[in-house]
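Posting this for the archive.
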Amino acid sequence: MNALLPFILSLIAMFVGAQHEPNEIADTPSPLQPLEIRLAKPLKWENGCLDVSFEFVNRSAKPVFLPTIGIYIDVSAKLLSSVPEKNGSERWLNLYGVSDIVPMLSVKPLAPGAAYHDGHCVISTVDVADSGSQIWREVPVRGRLRISVQYYISDPNQPKPPRKYVATEPPVAEVTTLAVPIPCPDGGCALGCDGPPSIEESEIQLVPNIRPHNQEWIERGNERNKVLRNLYPCSE
């Protein structure tokens, strides 16, 4: 298994690249979008996980259609790069949703003015790995949280009249987002360390999470954490 891990990580990177890409979604939804995301209650750390409770509200005069899979929760991270234009830029690590494999499209309507409530308790750390250096480490959930949801303005499963010589295009989902600051745990954050953690440009997120059996990967990750902590006190 350990010998296959770099190959598995490369496949994971290819898979994630073909899926929903959180970095390409705007943080602030357009006021013209029919679906609104809002927090049902403030974010709060409870028993080591972050309680995220939210709802979607249909602000339009027509139903919108929510897929059974299409909710994503991401946490911010700060990129460490040798390229000045990239260094310090914001990246997003997924906490919920990206590991979902898209099945046959299934949707449920949300009536005008109606609200749909959902919530998740997300873990306090995210795993990242550097397959080239054979490093695996954990970074804290800190900085900003982003909730994204896909929806359709018409039923994507509704049959459309066939048009001769015109190929049927698959339905395209709309996306709306909400980004909010993550509070410090009850014990508080270290002074000035309430922002996002740092990640190296060579590090990718594991989706789904595969913890290496080789203890050397983990030990090298601990060493990288020490180095980053010395260079950037709030890096983790």
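The domain at 5-159+170-231 is CATH 2.60.40.2360 (Immunoglobulin-like). The CA atoms of residues 10 and 48 lie 31 Å apart.
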